[in-house]
Amino acid sequence: MNTEVLNPKSALLLEAGLNVLHFESQEWLGTIDFWKDEIKFFDILLKKKEPQEDHQKDFRKILEDLEGIHVNLFKYMENDIIAHEKILSRLQKNEKGVSDSIYRENHRKLMVRMDSFKNEFLKFKKIVFKFVKNL
Questions:
Q1: What confidence tier does 10 reach under pLDDT thresholds 50, 70, 90?
Q2: What is the pTM for the complete model shown?
Q3: Which of 113, 131, 135, 114 is nearest to 64 (CA)?
Q4: Whole-number Å distance between alpha carbons of 6 and 9
Q5: Distance CA 26, CA 88 (A)
Q6: Residue 72 falls in which region: left (phi positive, over 0), alpha (psi -120 to 50) or beta
């Protein structure tokens, strides 16, 4: 059986009021905006000094391609969070066909995705900085 363990803070957040979940969604959108700025910085950083060796050139190309992938992932995450916020709006209006429990489950899934992406992006940033440092 594959069960996912949430940290206690996350579990408590999921039981919180909808306004708290809305606030968390807004924080995610702010985090994504910050990551977009970081990607622009990495682009400048990677192009600042030309690698001398072929393997370094190839590695820089891979890092630049990964930047593009991250930008697309940011868009997908951002779109999913905005769609999630729209469901919250419908939930608050007591529209039929919208479930609090389904909304909270979707919020949990977004939380897991954001945490996972944050960890992966942190690894990417470390690789970029190590690469630039060794140029």
A1: low
A2: 0.82
A3: 131
A4: 8
A5: 12
A6: alpha
Query: How far apart, in Å, are the Cα atoms of 110 and each of 36, 44, 98?
Result: 18, 30, 17
**HEC secondary structure over the chain:** CCCCCCCHHHHHHHHCCHHHHHHHHHHHHHHHHHHHHHHHHHHHHHHHCCCCCHHHHHHHHHHHHHHHHHHHHHHHHHHHHHHHHHHHHHHHCCCCCCCHHHHHHHHHHHHHHHHHHHHHHHHHHHHHHHHHHCC
Average pLDDT over residues 88-105: 90
Are residues 10 and 92 in contact, defined by beta-carbon separation less than 8 angstroms? no
Place of tokens 């030309």: 50
Burial class (CB in 10 A: 0-12, 13-18, 19+), 119: exposed
- Please give the distance of CA 50 from its chain centroid, rounded to a whole number: 30
The CA–CA distances, whole Å, from 82 to 78, 95, 111 equal: 6, 18, 14
